[in-house]
Amino acid sequence: MNGLRRLSITARITIGSLLIATLFGLVAVAVVRIGVATILHNATVTLLMNDIAPYVTELETNPAGKLDAPVGGQEIAVVAPDGQVVQSTLPRRLEARIQHLETFGTEAASVSAGGQQYIVLKHNVETSAGTYVVIAARNTETTDLILDRLTVAMLVGAGIAIVVFGAASWLLARAALRPVSRMREEAEAIADVSSTGLLAVGPANDELAALATTLNDLLRRLRASADREKQMVSDASHELRTPLAVLRGQLELAELDAGDADALLADIRDSHSTAVRLGQLAANLLELSRIDAGATQGQADWRELTSELAEAIDRARAVSGDDADLSIDFDYRPRSRDGGGATVALSRTEFGRVVDNLLSNAITALEGSGEIGVELVAVAGRVTLTVQDSGPGMPEDFIPIALTRFTRAEGPRSALAGGGLGLAIVAALVRSAGGSIVLANASAGGLLATVVLPATTTEGAPA
């Protein structure tokens, strides 16, 4: 078995085809031989009946008359009612066993005598003088020879047919697997992740086309993963360079201020702030990488969404409450019209991350005072989250790229600790759930962020 596994697919297909062809060939030869043997046997029995028929007629007509001598090499024996053999052309080896042959039934029987095989047929003739027995026999040597020669011819023919079938199987297997060989060569040519080529998909809707499609999907995913890794390394090296340089400078400054306790404490606090920013930046990079890799597979129902929204607002209030001069009012309006069972393709934690980043962006823009309005609505198969602040809004030329990673607007909204990744994370999470996010400057002032997530009911139907 292990030896077969080492063979090529073409060889295994050919060997399997040969085994099946050999089995069918042997069965066919056996069936044909049995059929021909039956035909020859029936023909011999018919001839024996024809040999007996004239004697039966003659005995029934004139049992006391003289019987005609057998002609044409007929082997016949007629036994009178008293047991006397009145006519016999049977071979001596059979004639010596006439009394035994008389005990046979009316069906043809095979008898071996003197190394020869005979088919014997007995017929009882009822006459006015008593019961005569007519026995006819035929040697099977000729029919056996015909059958043997026919069997040899069929075996030779079957052998030739098997060889031809094996060659045809080899050629067909090679032809069928040739596209696989070409696919392998193409795969070797585009194995480099920097390549943009894909495997050719044939016009036929067959297994090879399905395999090529699956492999192309795999190539796309592998290349996308490699691109994400390259992007993450590039982003990390680019964005971490400045904070690390700042941190190194702060530490060097702290070393110089070793004799001044107040200055040293200020340097340590600055270094701690920079380290926190570095940690936040690294965490955001990892979060984006996780989202890009398709790791968001959670779900949250309407109750979880409203609970998480309330908790996110509490967290934002806690952050804004640290500054005594900061006064921000939150308007929290969760509403649902025929959507109480709505479920979105984000986990509760991921939805909280979306709300946290939008609120953080709004709080930063307000610079100490203002209003933030938050509304959550479930209706018509979707869940809509809106976050609006009364801040200065965004420059119109920046809005189209605001969701791109590492982009920062000029002004208050540029002071984010996330390194320009907060809105990018929001966009990535929303898109992973099949939703959309739109940023726009409100007519009354401030920025309006609208997140729309497709929703299903708990039974799986549209909400």
TrEMBL record:
<dbReference type="GO" id="GO:0000155">
    <property type="term" value="F:phosphorelay sensor kinase activity"/>
</dbReference>
<dbReference type="GO" id="GO:0005886">
    <property type="term" value="C:plasma membrane"/>
</dbReference>
<dbReference type="InterPro" id="IPR050428">
    <property type="entry name" value="TCS_sensor_his_kinase"/>
</dbReference>
<dbReference type="InterPro" id="IPR003594">
    <property type="entry name" value="HATPase_dom"/>
</dbReference>
<dbReference type="InterPro" id="IPR036890">
    <property type="entry name" value="HATPase_C_sf"/>
</dbReference>
<feature type="transmembrane region" description="Helical">
    <location>
        <begin position="152"/>
        <end position="173"/>
    </location>
</feature>
<keyword id="KW-0812">Transmembrane</keyword>
<feature type="transmembrane region" description="Helical">
    <location>
        <begin position="12"/>
        <end position="40"/>
    </location>
</feature>
<keyword id="KW-0472">Membrane</keyword>
<dbReference type="Pfam" id="PF02518">
    <property type="entry name" value="HATPase_c"/>
</dbReference>
<feature type="domain" description="HAMP">
    <location>
        <begin position="174"/>
        <end position="227"/>
    </location>
</feature>
<dbReference type="Pfam" id="PF00512">
    <property type="entry name" value="HisKA"/>
</dbReference>
<keyword id="KW-0808">Transferase</keyword>
<keyword id="KW-0418">Kinase</keyword>
<dbReference type="InterPro" id="IPR004358">
    <property type="entry name" value="Sig_transdc_His_kin-like_C"/>
</dbReference>
<dbReference type="InterPro" id="IPR003660">
    <property type="entry name" value="HAMP_dom"/>
</dbReference>
<protein>
    <recommendedName>
        <fullName>histidine kinase</fullName>
        <ecNumber>2.7.13.3</ecNumber>
    </recommendedName>
</protein>
<dbReference type="InterPro" id="IPR003661">
    <property type="entry name" value="HisK_dim/P_dom"/>
</dbReference>
<dbReference type="Pfam" id="PF00672">
    <property type="entry name" value="HAMP"/>
</dbReference>
<dbReference type="InterPro" id="IPR005467">
    <property type="entry name" value="His_kinase_dom"/>
</dbReference>
<feature type="domain" description="Histidine kinase">
    <location>
        <begin position="235"/>
        <end position="457"/>
    </location>
</feature>
<keyword id="KW-1133">Transmembrane helix</keyword>
<keyword id="KW-0597">Phosphoprotein</keyword>
<dbReference type="InterPro" id="IPR036097">
    <property type="entry name" value="HisK_dim/P_sf"/>
</dbReference>
<keyword id="KW-0902">Two-component regulatory system</keyword>
